Amino acid sequence: MLKVLLWLLNVIFGFFVGGLYAGFCTQTYTCTGTCYKSQVYYRSCGFFGWSRCASYRPSSYSCNQTCYRQSCCTGYTGSSCNTPLCNGMTYCPNGGTCQSPDECSCPTGFSAPLCNDTDECSKASHGCQHDCRNTAGSYHCTCRAGYGLSNDLMTCLVDCGHPGDIDNGTVSVSSTLSGAMVTYTCNTDYNMTSGDRVRQCQNDFTWSGTKPACIFSNHCKSSPCKNGATCVNAIGGFLCTCSQWWSGQICETDIQPPLLTGCSDDVYLNATDHTVQYSWIKPTFTDPRGSDLEIVSNYPSPEFTFPWGDYTIQYVATKTSNGLQTECSFQIKVRPTPCEELNVPVNGARLCNGWRTDYGRFCLIMCQQNYTIGPTHNYYTWHVCGASGNWIAASPVPDCEVPVVSEYEGEYYHPEYASYVFSSSCEDDVTRNTLQTLYIEYLKGTDGFSSFCSTFESECMKENVDVKCNT
């Protein structure tokens, strides 16, 4: 009776506790206990045991009983019986959470009640343009050969593949799909000389343009140019801009000629005599490279006695290391001392040589018609400027100041009058030509003066006769 009472109390307590702890439940089980029963035995009662009396006594024995106890309800576990079980476990597979008995809260890609994998590829909503591949809890799209997955991970674009590396440079590839750009960059000291720096993947599975070439461009880095030259990088090589007096591919050839200082200017000398002595300062030759110089001159000594004429003084320095030469050359011109300008006679003309006047002047006078010179003068007289710087005969020349009425009167004073007179103005071309012709004729026919014509034959012509008139 006591056990039954206890069972009832537990049931009542379970109801109350169930309100507080839903995971507690009363469980029955078979247990071994002591059972009691009454036994009847007889004894003689009455006279001579003619009747019997029944007596009862209790006896006990072991027997199976139904027992009751508090434990976790089905689907719960834990000390407080509030931890649910899913498929007999306190957790769910694939990262799920057991919320209630055999009911899991599953992450995306897995389905209740026990978080089994969902085959997203079986649904039309997977969005893959080409192929779908299911994975645990998810899926991903794949593309057929020749295509690649775009950034949206669903669309398939043409894949041009890697555009190829280049020598002495790098290629920057962020994508090889249609529309993608790749950029080539040459290494330090290299220049891009051909091809395209930027290429694009095209829908025909090819890259636009061509791969570039990177050529070494910093040949000047090793300073190949010599002797202060400027190095300029060129495609596949370099150029040297040589400083002055150097030449060659790398400016290795010395083209410096000897340097010259102190070269005299041309000298003009007047000589009263037929010769004059003159001294000059020898020029100086040097070489900045320190090479030996060989110096020669057409005058061994810087002093010489020069007659009238033109003379060239020459010094030549030769650089032994490269054979280059530098020349100093100047002229010394020796002339007679010049005379003052000879006057032109009034009513007359003065005829002189117009060539080689620095060697001397040979002059005649002629008169305009109806005028003549005084009787103390002579038409035959040559007025000559000699080396002394004085006129012979003495200057000035006489004027044609004596009037004459006729040729006969003129010849009275001067028998040669007719040969030294002109009728028209000497500004007239015909008259001037006649005067010039007469002058050449008289000069060539005069002893001592004719040599001036023969010496300068090419210049002794009527066109070079200097005619001055005063009429």
Give a verbal description of the structure.
The protein starts with a helix and ends with a strand. The longest helix has 19 residues. The radius of gyration is 72 Å and the shape is rod-shaped. The chain has 5 domains: 77 residues, no CATH class; 58 residues, Complement Module, domain 1, CATH 2.10.70; 35 residues, Laminin (Ribbon); 78 residues, Sandwich (Immunoglobulin-like), CATH 2.60.40; 123 residues, no CATH class. The strands form 15 sheets. Strands 30, 31, 33, 34, 36 and 37 form a 6-stranded mixed sheet that branches. The protein has a 4-stranded mixed sheet with strand order 23-29-28-26, with no helix packed on it. It is mainly β and 471 residues long. It is built from 4 helices and 37 strands.
Oligomer: single chain
Instruction: Give the proportion of residues in helices.
Output: 10-25%
Structural class: mainly beta
Q: Number of helical segments?
A: 4
- How much of the polypeptide forms β-strand, as a percent range? 35-45%
Rough shape? rod-shaped
Number of β-strand runs: 37
Low-confidence stretches: 1-22
Characterize the main sheet: 6 strands, mixed
Rg measurement, Å = 72 Å
Distance between the termini: 191 Å
The structural domain count equals 5
State mean pLDDT (0 to 100 scale): 87
Short recap of the structure:
By secondary structure, this protein is mainly beta.
Task: Outline the secondary-structure elements.
Elements: H1 2-20, E1 24-45, E2 51-72, E3 76-77, E4 83-84, E5 97-100, E6 103-105, E7 110-111, E8 116-117, E9 131-135, E10 138-142, E11 147-149, E12 156-158, E13 169-173, E14 181-186, E15 190-194, E16 198-200, E17 213-216, E18 230-234, E19 237-241, E20 246-247, E21 253-254, E22 259-261, E23 267-271, E24 275-279, E25 284-286, E26 293-297, E27 303-307, E28 309-319, E29 325-336, E30 348-353, E31 361-368, E32 371-372, E33 383-385, E34 391-392, E35 402-403, H2 407-413, E36 421-422, H3 429-444, H4 450-455, E37 465-470
